[in-house]
Structures are given as structure tokens and as C-alpha cells.
Design a protein that fits this description.
Elements (H helix, E strand, L loop, with lengths): L1 H13 L6 H4 L2 H20 L3 H14 L3 E2 L11 E6 L3 E6 L5 H4 L1 E7 L4 E12 L2 E9 L12 E8 L5 E6 L9 E2 L8 H4 L14 E4 L11 H14 L9 E7 L4 E3 L5 E4 L2 H16 L6 E7 L16 H12 L4 H6 L2 E4 L3 E2 L21 E4 L3 E2 L10 H13 L4 E3 L9 E2 L3 H5 L4 E6 L1 E2 L7 E4 H15 L1
Parallel strand pairs: 1-2, 4-14, 4-15, 15-21, 16-22, 17-19
Antiparallel strand pairs: 2-3, 3-14, 5-6, 5-11, 6-10, 7-8, 7-11, 9-10, 12-13, 13-23, 17-21, 18-20
């Protein structure tokens, strides 16, 4: 028995096992986990698009003493600033007194766009007693998941005179909602014979927006005219104004606790606001540091991080250069000594679909924020594969701060894959690794995360910033 006990002790000492955060937490800490989640749910319900996420982040930052930065402004030690890049990308930074040539900058980068349904530029038409919007979906979605669910319209319209109008319809209890039709089972024999990915085509994701004919005998498209008249009355719009609009359909659901024990949260847009919110709040809640810190909330990650608001934009490079020059430092040296956590979600192991996961190396729900040394697909294509030295640095940091975390890989080899913004930051000669929250049903209109994983991401980002 003694020998067996010694063997067990040796096994526990030498082997690796993931820890369940709830099992490892005191009642007081569990209360903190649940309390923190309430703020997150409010943020999610307010910030369903990248524009709304930027506005909400600015409100939170300004309440903590951050002020707006404009390109070319002088930057000083002690500054707490945010740069609003075209209302769809936000960079927040605090300048510490530590020498950034020696210690670099600590960067946490998340994205705030999510898969959705966008309107085409000339979307409105009438057919067979109904009026619809034509759409073009945004990001990687399973199209069948977006039919027959309540949808809300969010976005902006820039009218012919240059005025910008914000539109949100479908979120208030007395608002109408919008809808994508699907085929009834009685007539769907042909549809049922198609593969899941082909049963619904992109061109059939048309949004049902009206059914009331305008009271006139002089117009052929009477229902379309009713919709146009309502838009004109409420927003001063004409049909031509759709050309200079960014309007999207998102699920009209609110964030809700899932399960009898309320340990999980169901919501639209966990990917990637479940990392953006803890990154933001970690920065705002961490004043006791002399480091210079960046938090980046980027756009367009779901379509390749492109454009002047995506992570491929040179805005981060420009901001590091601005800070370096203001402080009389060499930007090349600053970047070489900087460190980044690419804060993006990963796939949580789902026993209902176990065949696509390699369980030993998958992220488990409620076992903490998950580090992905690499992402990509097939032979690690299109990924930042973090160095052993940098992973070792993060391991040591988390161990010293009591952070519960885990490693993760996005499914079995050759089963699929995906990417993050990590590789674009690493290309600037900045050590980078992915760390984020495991998600069930990623990219669905309603995703699921654990409150424990959300809170450990917040703790991990705070430890990294400090």
C-alpha cells in the first residue's frame, strides 16, 4: 500500500491534468465569477456590432479617466488615452514610467466583429405580397442556422446631405423584428436531400421586412413603398441612401444564463467579445503598474483582418511609433521587446461531436482561459506558432499569479481549422500567443461559454498587464 501511495504521489507530481475552475474556487471567488459575468452580459446586449462595441468601450474608458487621442498629439508618461479609428476599431493605451526600450509594451488584442447578415447596397424589393431585403452574409456561418429566428437591424446610414443616422430596430420589447423564411417540411424533400452546407443558399437569405400595401393605385410595388415611406418618415431616408449605409441583421436575443446552476452564458457574439470585454476591463481595473499597455479592439477578423480597421492595418505600428518618438525611444527596439496576448476564442470540446476533437489537446469548458500555441489548418498553415521561450514566459507568469488556464488546439489535425490576429502582430517582431475563452457552437447565432472561463481570462489579462 505504501508503494502504491508513493506511486500515486509521483504520478500526481509528474503528470499534467486540467483543473475545473469551479472546483478550485472558494465560495467567495465563485461569487466574483458570477458578479463579473453580469457586467459582461450587459456589454454584450449593448454591443452587438463593432461600432456599438467601440462606443460602449469608449464610455467605459472615459468613466475611468481615459481621454481621446488624435494622431500627432504629444504623448507623455502617465497618459491614459484611446484612439477611435473610424468608429470600428479602438486602441486604448496607458503610458507607464518603465523604459519601453527595455521592457517593451504589453499588448492585448481582441476583435469585436462577429458573423452576421449584411444588407446589399440596393437591398429592398417586393415579391408575392411580401417585401424583402437582399443580403450578403459576413464571416463564416452555417446559413441554415439563421433562418426562422428573430433578427434585429443595426447600423448606420449616411444620407445624401452627409448626415449620419444610427438605426437599431428589433431590440426593444415593442419593436418589430425581422425574419428569414425557410421551407416547410411538407415540401422540402429536395432540400432535405442536399448536404447541410448547401440546403440554404446565400442568395435565399432574404430578410422579410413588410407585407402592408401602400394605399395608392398609382404604384406597382405598394408594399415596397410602404417600407420606404416608413424609413423616410423615421430616418429621412430614400432608397438611394442604402448605397452609403452599413446595415446588418443580428439575432434579436438577449444574453441569458444557461442551465439550472447558471454556470454558462448563452449569447450572440461571444466570438470575440468574450475576450474583448475582459481585455478592456483588465486594462481599466489595473492602475498599479508602471508598464506601458495597449488594448486593441479590432474589426474585420472574421473576414481576414483586412482594411484600415482590421489588424492588417498599420495603425498599431503607427501608434507604437508615435509613443516611441514622443518618449525619445527607438521604435524597432520597442517592438522587439514587446509582448502580446492575441485574445481570441477557441473551440470548446463538445462530447456531442467528439469525432472532430482530439480530446487530450482540446479546451474543456470551465477549465480556464485556453492558450493556443498555434492555430491555422492542416500543416499549421496561416498561423503564428509561438516560441517555446514565450510560452514558457507566460506559463511562469500565470503560475506566479495563481491563474488557472489550459492549452488548446482547434480540433483534430486535418479536421478543419481557423486563424486569429496573432500572426499579424507577430509579423511586427512582437512575441505573440493566443489566449482566449473556449466556446460551444462557435459562429452560431447563439453561442455558449462558461462564466469561469470568462473570469479567468480577465485574471490572466490583468496578470499579463501588471
Amino acid at each position: 500500500m505504501e508503494e502504491k501511495s508513493a506511486s500515486r504521489e509521483m504520478f500526481e507530481k509528474l503528470s499534467y491534468k486540467k483543473k475545473n475552475v469551479f472546483e478550485e474556487s472558494s465560495p467567495e471567488r465563485i461569487k466574483k465569477i458570477f458578479d463579473y459575468s453580469e457586467g459582461y452580459k450587459k456589454y454584450l446586449d449593448t454591443a452587438k456590432t463593432e461600432r456599438e462595441a467601440v462606443l460602449e468601450a469608449i464610455k467605459l474608458a472615459e468613466s475611468r479617466g481615459y481621454t481621446e487621442y488624435h494622431l500627432g498629439d504629444k504623448i507623455n508618461i502617465g497618459d491614459k488615452k484611446y484612439f477611435n479609428n473610424r468608429s470600428k476599431n479602438l486602441l486604448l493605451f496607458r503610458v507607464g514610467k518603465d523604459d519601453i526600450e527595455k521592457d517593451g509594451i504589453r499588448i492585448v488584442a481582441a476583435h469585436i466583429d462577429s458573423p452576421r447578415i449584411d444588407l446589399k447596397q440596393i437591398p429592398l424589393y417586393e415579391d408575392s405580397g411580401m417585401s424583402f431585403f437582399k443580403t450578403h452574409y459576413y464571416g463564416g456561418i452555417k446559413k441554415y442556422q439563421w433562418t426562422t429566428i428573430p433578427l434585429a437591424l443595426h447600423g448606420v446610414v449616411v444620407k445624401a446631405d452627409g448626415e449620419t443616422v444610427n438605426i437599431t430596430v428589433g431590440e426593444a420589447e415593442d419593436d418589430p423584428i425581422f425574419y428569414i423564411n425557410d421551407l416547410l417540411p411538407h415540401l422540402s424533400a429536395d432540400q432535405n436531400s442536399k448536404t447541410l452546407g448547401n440546403a440554404i443558399s446565400g442568395e435565399t437569405l432574404n430578410i422579410l421586412v413588410g407585407g402592408l400595401p401602400y394605399d395608392s393605385e398609382d404604384v406597382s410595388d405598394k408594399i415596397k413603398l410602404t417600407v420606404l415611406s416608413i424609413l423616410n418618415e423615421k430616418y429621412g431616408m430614400t432608397e438611394e441612401d442604402f448605397i452609403s449605409a452599413e446595415l446588418s441583421l443580428v439575432p434579436a436575443y438577449k444574453s441569458r444564463d444557461i442551465g439550472f446552476d447558471r454556470a454558462l452564458i448563452g449569447a450572440y457574439g461571444h466570438d470575440d467579445r468574450v475576450c474583448a470585454y475582459p481585455a478592456l476591463t483588465a486594462l481599466l481595473d489595473t492602475e498599479e503598474t508602471d508598464r506601458t499597455v495597449f488594448v486593441i479592439l479590432a474589426d474585420k477578423e472574421e473576414i481576414g483582418s483586412v482594411g484600415n480597421t482590421g489588424m492588417k492595418s498599420e495603425i498599431l505600428y503607427d501608434m507604437i511609433r508615435e509613443i516611441s518618438r514622443s518618449l525619445g525611444k527607438n521604435e524597432i527596439v520597442v517592438r522587439a521587446h514587446s509582448k502580446c496576448l492575441s485574445a481570441d476564442v477557441t473551440a470548446a470540446y463538445d462530447p456531442n461531436f467528439a469525432d472532430v476533437y482530439e480530446k487530450r489537446n482540446s479546451a474543456m469548458v470551465s477549465c480556464g482561459a485556453a492558450m493556443s500555441k498555434f492555430t491555422g489548418s492542416r500543416g499549421k498553415s496561416s498561423t503564428n506558432d509561438a516560441s517555446a521561450e514565450y510560452v514558457g514566459y507566460i506559463r511562469k507568469l500565470f503560475s506566479e499569479n495563481g491563474i488557472i488556464w489550459q492549452t488548446a488546439e482547434l480540433g483534430k489535425v486535418d479536421a478543419g481549422g481557423g486563424g486569429t490576429v496573432a500572426m499579424y502582430i507577430a509579423e511586427m517582431n512582437i512575441d505573440t500567443v493566443d489566449l482566449g475563452v473556449p466556446v460551444i457552437s462557435m459562429h452560431a447565432p447563439y453561442e455558449v461559454i462558461s462564466k469561469a472561463d470568462l473570469y479567468t481570462a480577465y485574471e490572466a489579462f490583468r496578470a499579463f498587464i501588471k
